[in-house]
Amino acid sequence: MKKLPIAFYAGFLVVALLLAGVVSYAASSSPDGLDAVTRTGCQLDESGEPAGGECIAQNAGEHATANSPLADYTVGGSEGSTGVAGVIGVLATLVIAGGLFWLLRRRSSRDETPSRVE
Amino acid sequence: MDPSTDLVAMHMSDGIVNAPTSVIFGVVAVLGLAVCVAKARRDLDDRTAPMAGLVAAFVFAVQMLNFPILPGVSGHLLGGALCAILVGPYVGALCVSIVLLLQALLFADGGLSALGTNITNMALIGTFVGYGVAVAMRKLAVRSRGGLIATAFVAAWVNTVVASLGFVLEYAIGGQGLALGTVFGLMTGFHALIGIGEGIITALTVGAVAAVRPDLVYLTRTAAPSLEIKGARA
Question: Which residues form the PDGLE domain (chain A) (predicted)?
């Protein structure tokens, strides 16, 4: 088996952490394309939430996990915690996705002998 | 209980399409993901499995970075073409799905009942359409790094626009509130612009990976994606 490109992996992770942890503060807070469509025709209340009018977002329900400690990419709803929530999200994604893919992977040829154990 | 005033929701919420439509696309998503899990194994080994986990984490990070496209309207990466080019379409669709699942469960972004529609649009349609475009342009992609970067841009743009058509289809089946033609026009118009951002991000990312570790770019590493896998170098 060839050596794993550990340095590359580490660099890739650092980039992702910086994007989620730091650059995320510069992200636009305008609704995205989909949200802009579902809000078209809505009357918005003073906090910018749909409150009447004829629009798609009128049918949207409150989110089932709106009370999650990480809801809306914050930690406990506290302001300025987007970066922390982002870092948690990156690490959680890495662990879940990486773990799943590691379990699914083909074992390298050496231990490919069909041993029943494991 | 007070719903946040932040506009951070990025994906379809619960109730945007009716319950039967949510169920239909929930089934579509489950079936599609089952195929992906079965086929992903072939593309995962000791080197590519960690890479795929990192690609998923990267997509999560970049999806947080909404960029402005018009006054009052933003866009963000969907990630299908990006994942497909780097780790293959089956693993790639799983990467995007895991991101969507975590966003819905932990970050209250994208409704739980809308997971089927969101996964269908962004993880299945976006990834496989993006991959199809990339494969069609593969001759260009293997010629040079510039060719690969151009391929990544085009695949990502198409992935974004076609994924938005997935929403239009779901809305046509089970949505209400706006005329279908209006929804079609706004969705494709906005996503033609968002696709430019998606294309730039995808091109930069794929270009950077190809510069450092070309062996970790699925599209150009694998033999022509046909039936030639048998008997390939082992």
Answer: 8-106
